[in-house]
Design a protein that fits this description.
The protein contains seven helices and six strands. By secondary structure, it is α/β, with parallel strands linked by helices. It has a six-stranded parallel sheet with strand order 3-4-2-1-5-6, with helices on both faces. Helix 4 links the parallel strand 3 and strand 4. The longest helix is centred in the middle third of the chain and has 24 residues. It is globular.
Length: 243
């Protein structure tokens, strides 16, 4: 594979990744679905380390959606176990690399061990100033927007906010990603070309790249090719390109 040449001055500030294809990878390799998710976790480690090393400001990962609870119980249980294992094994290195962890999604619905592990990771890394690692767990973008709407409605009802003050900034300030830049580059592996309820607001002007590789086969070289593709794009934000 040809190695991508990256311009460090044109890297995206915020990269989102929908890590798709673990199940298909497992079936292709005649393995249990849980092994596909484990292989996907292994692929993830290098992407996180490299994002930190090259100066990406924020990396958002779609790990477990609100809809994923409908999957077979053994698969959900395997995902929850991997989640716990990941935080227990990686938190020391992530903290040492100055990574700040933020969980996107409703933590209260998670099993107690997982919920406490996520809260501990957020608390331990809260003051870190390096890569902002956002992990979407029990997350759905429509639910996130509805939550923001409820909070705004409550503020208006309590007289804290005037109705006319509800603008885009007010909504953005009540999303899980408050204070972060919008997504510049959205990567979805496995060739599927849809958002699947991931960061609908934050991806309003994102550039999309859809590599065909299944997530466990996605390498650092593939990641750099996606970043290089982003650097070829002309971002106009609705404006006409200057002649």
């Amino acid at each position: 594979m040809k190695e991508a040449t990256l311009n460090p001055d044109r890297l995206p500030r915020h990269v989102g990744i929908i890590m798709d294809g673990n199940g298909r990878w497992a079936r292709k390799n005649k393995l249990k679905i849980a092994m596909g998710h484990r292989a996907g976790t292994e692929a993830l480690r290098e992407i996180i380390r490299n994002s930190s090393d090259i100066g990406i400001e924020a990396l958002s990962l779609y790990a477990f959606s609100t809809e994923n609870w409908a999957r077979p119980k053994p698969e959900v249980d395997a995902l929850m176990s991997l989640l716990l294992e990941f935080f227990r094994s990686e938190i020391d290195e992530l903290h040492q690399k100055n990574v700040r962890i933020r969980i996107l999604g409703e933590k209260d619905a998670l099993p107690p061990q997982q919920r406490l592990a996520l809260i501990a990771a957020e608390t331990r890394t809260f003051d870190n100033t390096g890569l902002k690692l956002n992990i979407a767990i029990n997350y759905g973008s429509r639910a996130e927007l509805a939550r923001a709407a409820r909070l705004l409605a409550r503020e208006v009802a309590e007289g804290i906010r005037l109705p006319d003050s509800v603008d885009e900034a007010a909504v953005a300030g009540l999303l899980y990603t408050a204070g972060l830049p919008d997504v510049d580059l959205l990567i979805r592996t496995s060739g599927e070309m849809r958002l699947s309820n991931f960061m609908l607001w934050q991806c309003a002007y994102a550039e999309f790249v859809f590599p065909k590789k299944l997530w466990p086969d996605f390498t650092l070289e593939d990641y750099h090719l996606c970043l290089a593709e982003y650097q070829t794009r002309s971002r106009r934000y609705g404006k006409r390109e200057e002649e």
